[in-house]
Specification:
This protein is of the alpha/beta class. Helix content is 50%, strand content 19%. It has two domains: 129 residues, Response regulator (Rossmann fold), CATH 3.40.50.2300; 157 residues, 2-Layer Sandwich (Alpha-Beta Plaits). The protein is built from eleven helices and ten strands.
Length: 313
């Protein structure tokens, strides 16, 4: 069975921001970029550009003039790289004598174009930047995915969980963590061999993927035969339906003597403690619910008591 790597993250759309105080130039460049198939927005100066990135982002590439009112291009480049390091920038200027290429690159830009310029030249620079971004994303994928199953790994879980908890708190929506453990997995490995055990893990990862929402729910191989699943924007009753579906589909695969245990916990934000304490508490409660499921003999799901109390009328 192939690794489950094909739709864990939604493909990113290339989105440009053109920043220039000359209306004709920025609108002409916007028209060109949209004609090439990219999304594009415009801003008249650096200050307006920062506001647009904050409210309308994320942007892939910012193309900015250097000499502008309110905030010049070099200041904009430094500020963007400080606040959004993943954004690439191209500087364009008609004041090539006053602005050095090295100054622009040191500020954080990926490339530099002098006015007047040829659109073919700009297109070539954009193509190079997009290719480099693609390579960086491929390298990034290698560091956040489990090599056996293709889903996200423990390292990415530890990175992503605080982000998701913070977002759920700020935007006031429910976030649940589900911990899974395959019961009697060692016995299965001893009986059928490690290759069969690896295939079981790959098939279980695909069961999780086929039972959850694309680009929304986040599955992880937590370690060994333990898996984790983050489910945002769903109440506890809905989460239990998803988990029950996963348990039933796993049982239908016929991986005897193994079964599946699951523990469910909802993120709870306490205002009197740091966020990381509540993140740790979420993991602890999901783990304790999982251990209770295994104590009951496995092949079941257990809801954390605090999570259950939130669902009571």
């Amino acid at each position: 069975m192939e690794k489950a790597t094909f739709w864990l993250q939604k493909p990113s759309k290339q989105k440009f921001l053109v920043v220039d105080d000359e209306a004709f130039f920025r609108e002409s460049l916007k028209e060109y970029l949209e004609g090439a198939g990219y999304q594009c927005e415009v801003a008249a100066n650096g200050k307006e550009a920062l506001e647009k990135i904050s409210s309308n982002g994320p942007f892939t590439i910012v193309i900015t003039d250097i000499v502008m009112p309110e905030m010049d291009g070099l200041t904009l480049i430094r500020e963007v790289k400080k606040r959004w390091p993943e954004i690439d920038l191209i500087a364009i200027t008609g004041h090539a004598k006053e602005v050095k290429y090295t100054d622009v690159i040191r500020a954080g830009a990926s490339d530099f174009v002098r006015k007047p310029f040829d659109f073919d030249e700009l297109e070539a620079k954009i193509a190079r930047i997009l290719k480099e971004r693609e390579l960086r994303e491929q390298l990034r994928a290698l560091t956040i995915r489990d090599p056996l199953t293709g889903i996200f790994n423990r390292r990415y879980f530890e990175e992503k969980l605080p982000e998701e908890c913070y977002r759920a708190w700020r935007q006031n929506y429910p976030l649940h963590l589900v911990m899974f453990d395959i019961d009697h997995f060692k016995q299965y490995n001893d009986s059928y061999g490690h290759q069969a055990g690896d295939e079981l893990l790959r098939r279980f990862a695909n069961i999780i993927l086929s039972s959850t929402r694309r680009y929304i729910d986040l599955p992880f191989r937590y370690g060994g035969d333990e898996f984790a699943l983050l489910i945002p924007h769903c109440d506890t009753a809905g989460v239990c339906k998803i988990v029950s579906r996963i348990l039933n589909r796993y049982q239908a695969e016929g991986f005897e003597p193994t079964t599946l245990s699951a523990g469910v916990a909802r993120f709870i934000r306490r205002e009197d403690v740091p966020l990381n304490k509540d993140v740790d508490d979420l993991i602890l409660r999901a783990d304790e619910a999982l251990y209770e499921a295994k104590r009951r003999g496995g092949n079941c799901l257990v809801i954390d008591p605090k999570t259950k109390s939130l669902s009571l009328p």
